[in-house]
Amino acid sequence: MSEVKKNYYGSLCTEMYEILHKKAPEDELNFYLSYAEKGKKILEPLCGSGRFLIPFIERGFDITGIDMSNEMLKKLKLKFPNAKTIHTDIMEYDPKEKFDYIFISSGSVSLFTDIDICKQILTRIKNWLCKTGKFVFAVDTIKNRCIDDNDYNIAVSVKTKENFEIVLKSKNYYEEKTQTQFSPSIYEMYNNAELIQSEFMDFQTHLYKYGEMEQYLKEVGFTQVKTFSSFEKEIAVNDECDMFLFECSFL
């Protein structure tokens, strides 16, 4: 079994993700598109295999994507070879230009479970924005807490185009003190009954309470923060929603 990497999308995880999530959900895509302007520079950290990045390119926007998963970026390049992408860790990325709009989709900011590191990332993103720029993103809320499992259970299985079967087994448990949802996962690929590849993923997410992220954003220098509970931009008022969406600027 391959080396354990926290929240790293390896080859089997990427293959399953591509099968299950071929396109961005229309409501979520439209939410992020609503902030985009032609002629402005856009950055998508954690762009993955491009299910948001590619629709932006197809609509004529000037967008760059960064991701630390080489497997994900390879999938993206197969679909759109001319996409502007950079293989890098978000903590190492050092752009020479400022961006008008930065977004992180799919609640991926919740993957930064170490709050100190999360604040460092928020600070870096703020510094990548031009003075009138906006940062838009989503996080998972405590409503997404899973029931604790005693053992690994099959969550989903898919067939590849080569007719191999990929099986995902996961085990969920929640840590109250840190608000961390742990979901260690085992990906297995089978050729009929023969196991031909396996991969472990140390998947963790921080589940947010209402008002928590707003505090972090203000600490790092964002002065204007709007919190939504839906892609229709309904204002969030409590924890009773599956996600919080944030629109941030510092004018």
From TrEMBL:
Coiled coil: none annotated. One of its GO terms (biological process) is methylation. InterPro entries: Methyltransf_25, SAM-dependent_MTases_sf. SUPFAM superfamilies: S-adenosyl-L-methionine-dependent methyltransferases. It comes from the Bacteria. Residues 42-133 form the Methyltransferase domain. One of its GO terms (molecular function) is methyltransferase activity. It holds the Pfam family Methyltransf_25. Keywords: Methyltransferase, Transferase. This is Methyltransferase domain-containing protein. It comes from Brachyspira pilosicoli P43/6/78.
